[in-house]
Amino acid sequence: MPFATAAPDEELLGKSRGYPMGTRANWYTDDAARVGSYTNLDKLFPNQHHVLPRAERPSPLPKVATEPPLQYRFEGRLNSIDDYLAHQRATGLLVIKDGQILVERYQYDRKPTDRLTSNSMAKSLVGLAIGFAVSEGLIRSLDDRALEYVPELKGNIYGEARIRNLLRMASGARFSEENVRGNDDAAAFAQRHGAQGSMAAIRAFNTREAPEGERFHYASIETQVLTVVLRAATRKTVSEYLAKRLWRPMGAEADATWITGPDDLERGAAFFNATLRDWGRLGRLLANDGALDGTQIIPKDYLLEATDWHRHPAAFAPRESPPANGYGYHFWTMRGEKRRFLLRGVYGQSIYVDPELKLVLVHTAVAKTPSIGNQPMGAELGALWLGLVNAFGRW
């Protein structure tokens, strides 16, 4: 694989120490342990993860013989893929066009066999699982309330919320998630979830701040409510459910893992781990509206609705000013009349998808801060994506 000559901050990130893993206490917060932790999360939680087995016959993901000279404009000059990797703390970068790999790069001694963690990209997998369950009649309607499947949530604001509004992060509940100081509701929820499981953690939050369905308010707890609903509706773990319907049918070449809580339920808002190429296979499938080699794998109507901002109320549409992206059913939607969308996680995890161009950009990273929106990585990654779109089409 081509490597950048020197990755940014490589010594700060642990190169001379072999990029060590952190511990359960510091893997998320310690910059010096982030590279090793982000590719070994299932080793940090050896008895707390589910496995999604690889396909018996992985789907081909061919690679061009010579990487094309792709360029993008940033800060007044033309840049190459090498420039991007020299500037930004990316662990993996994959560009797929028409089902073929154009670019496959790794930094910080990462390898094609490493499982790279999702952070909040996992939320989109939970959203897809909801779509499968609706198509199979296991969830009767997106307008059902969560408590219809999980009666233990009766009397709780999240139990009263409709599944559609949980998918849009629109329960109306008060929940702070800043990913900065570690003293917000998200941190309190994660601590309680890790110690007591999903139900106790969810029921600890029960204050309404806005009418249901009227505003987008990002809150990872809502993904865990959907995870609990899925377990009740399908009578399977989300990993087991998606392994049969998504992971193996899309032709994954490697096992994936999903970290669980003490109740043996997936920590659905994050903690999914897969190889860069398998993240690419997922992106390719999404770019083909859920189909592979003529077989529809993801329910098409649901996927189109989940990823098209035109099909959602104005409160969930992209904006001209930050946060610029809109939100569908656990997918971020992008500005413009054409349907483009992305999966996104803190510290720089992203999968960009343009279905019209059959174009996918997978980006895994160890950014300096949880949110990259106001950081150089966010600006340059957006410029790279714009450059790729304009190389093969027009924004």
- Please summarize the sheet with the most strands: 7 strands, antiparallel
Number of strands: 15
Our count of helices gives 13
The largest beta-sheet arranges its strands as 5-4-15-14-13-12-11
- What integer is the average pLDDT? 96
From the N-terminal CA to the C-terminal CA, the straight-line distance is 30 Å
Which descriptors would you attach to this protein?
395 residues; alpha+beta; 7-stranded antiparallel β-sheet; 4-stranded antiparallel β-sheet; 13 helices
Task: Produce a short descriptive summary.
This protein is of the alpha+beta class and 395 residues long. 30% of the residues lie in helices and 16% in strands.
Task: Describe the 3D structure.
There is one protein chain. The protein is an alpha+beta fold and 395 residues long. The longest helix has 17 residues. The mean pLDDT is 96. The protein is globular and about 55 Å long. It is built from 13 helices and 15 strands. The strands form 4 sheets. A 7-stranded antiparallel beta sheet has the order 5-4-15-14-13-12-11, sandwiched between helices.
Spell out the blueprint of helices and strands.
Layout: H1 34-38, H2 41-44, E1 49-52, E2 71-74, E3 77-80, H3 81-87, E4 90-97, E5 100-106, E6 116-117, H4 122-135, H5 157-160, H6 163-167, H7 185-196, H8 198-203, H9 220-234, H10 238-247, E7 256-259, E8 272-274, H11 276-287, E9 291-292, E10 295-296, H12 300-307, E11 326-327, E12 332-333, E13 341-345, E14 349-354, E15 359-365, H13 376-392
Antiparallel strand pairs: 1-7, 2-3, 4-5, 4-15, 6-8, 7-8, 9-10, 11-12, 12-13, 13-14, 14-15
Helix pairs in contact: 4-9, 4-10
